Amino acid sequence: MSANSFGKLLTVTTFGESHGPAIGCIIDGCPPGIAIAPEDFRADLSRRATGRSRFVSQRRESDEVEILSGVHGGRTTGTPIALLIRNTDARSKDYAQVSQTFRPGHADYTYWHKYGLRDPRGGGRSSARETTVRVAAAVIAKRWLAGLGIRVQGWISAIGPCVPGRIEFSAIEDNPLFWPDPDTLPEVEAFLDGLRKSGDSIGARVSVVAEGVPVGLGEPLYGKLDGDLASALMGINAVKAVEIGDGVEVIRQRGSEHRDELTPAGFLSNHAGGILGGISSGQPILAHVAIKPTSSILVPGRSVNLAGEPVEVVTRGRHDPCVGIRAVPIVEAMLALVLMDHLLRHRAQCGDVPAMSPRVPAPPFQPESA
Ligand code: EPS
Q1: Residues in the chain where the model's pLDDT stays below 70
Q2: For 22-72, how does the pLDDT look when each residue is reduced to its tens digit (9 = 90+)?
Q3: Which of 94, 147, 195, 272 is the most exposed place for a label (fewest CB within 10 A)?
Q4: Candidates 18, 48, 239: which one to mutate for ligand 1, based on the most atoms within 8 Å of Cβ?
């Protein structure tokens, strides 16, 4: 499988560049009969879109999805689904300077050295634009998962030094930052405003939970659910770390603290993040992703040009001060696609039983403890 495709039974191949005519994807292996229409993509695509608030890139794209194949009469047919989104607001002149140099911290450098040439306009494939079609593909996956009682929700769990005091699920979609704590929202907004004025950028932590996932998804040893999830999440541009459950905190934990004890009524905790031995436990799947600060910033930085001479780089254009904000629906998308792929894989090998009915019930997800 090529490096632009992921999944085993449900595969998604993305194509296109940020400043090319269009971006798109091919979804193969999708079960027939899922109801889907072009307007069904709008809600999730607008959650990820640029131009939604002063805290994100001001590029304006309509992100209208054209369904080219695989859907007839409003339902998936089981044949490859092709989705296309045209780029309508690329401003390539912003990249004239970048074409002769390397932005410090950007993939400019490695793409150039690997391929010996690059499409500098908009960062090409290294742009966040590519993630649009992953989110589109996952609209179909989320719909299929919802039919099985599985729901995926992401939120921002840190922006630089700002951490939410609590996680209120009902508040996440009420603000463009996906910030789950209304009390500390003004503080984060003030922080981001100051950052924008300084021309700098900041990193972020995105958390995601999938509830209603049955026990039994994931295959030892090279098809572990957490292994595939980590690969899918790390495959998002700008991701520098992935954690499952308590993640790096396990370093400080004792066995007696970390283990999730069992009673006939179910698990008593979820330090494992819903995955034991690479296989889902029936508990909520919980993952966290660290997103680096955007490298295209106005703060001058040292670099070299294509001739290897020292230069000072200042990157102008319509860049995100915190690209992690828009990553929330992308992280949800990758989790949904991995879960759908693994559900299909589980069915192919084991059939629906017993994975579709957990033997030990899981307690509901407690956002406060995330
Ligand atoms: C991006 C730079 C900006 C963002 C873009 C990601 O685009 P431009 O090349 O026009 O300056 O707007 O994000 C999107 C267009 C999008 O849809 O996510 C980058 O360098 O990654």
Answers
A1: 1, 353-363, 368-370
A2: 999 999 999 999 999 999 999 999 999 999 999 999 999 999 999 999 999
A3: 147
A4: 18
Q: What is the pLDDT of residue 366?
A: 75
Cis peptide before 221 (omega within 30 of 0): yes
* CA dist list (Å): 34 to 31, 86, 142, 286, 313: 7, 24, 11, 26, 49
Minimal CA–CA distance to 164: which of 175, 154, 179?
A: 179
Sign of the CA dihedral with 98 first, then 322, 140, and 173 last: negative
C-alpha separations of 214 from 273, 321, 357 in Å: 13, 38, 7
CA–CA separation, 191 and 189 (whole Å): 5
Q: What pLDDT is stored for residue 21 in this prediction?
A: 96
CB neighbours of residue 264 within 10 Å: 6
Least Cα distance to 267 among 286, 242, 249 occurs for 286
- Picking from 138, 146, 151, the residue whose alpha carbon sits closest to that of residue 27 is 138
125 CB less than 6 Å from ligand 1?
A: no
* Burial environment of residue 112 by CB neighbours within 10 A (0 to 12, 13 to 18, 19 or more): middle
Task: Output the CA 209–ligand 1 centroid distance in Å.
Answer: 27
Rg (CA), the chain: 21
- Domain 5-369 is found in CATH 2.30.170.40: no
Pick from 171, 245, 246, 161: nearest CA to 204: 161
Domain boundaries, the chain: 5-369
Q: Which atom of ligand 1 is nearest to the CA of 19?
A: 9
Backbone angles phi, psi at 204, to 5 degrees: -155, 160
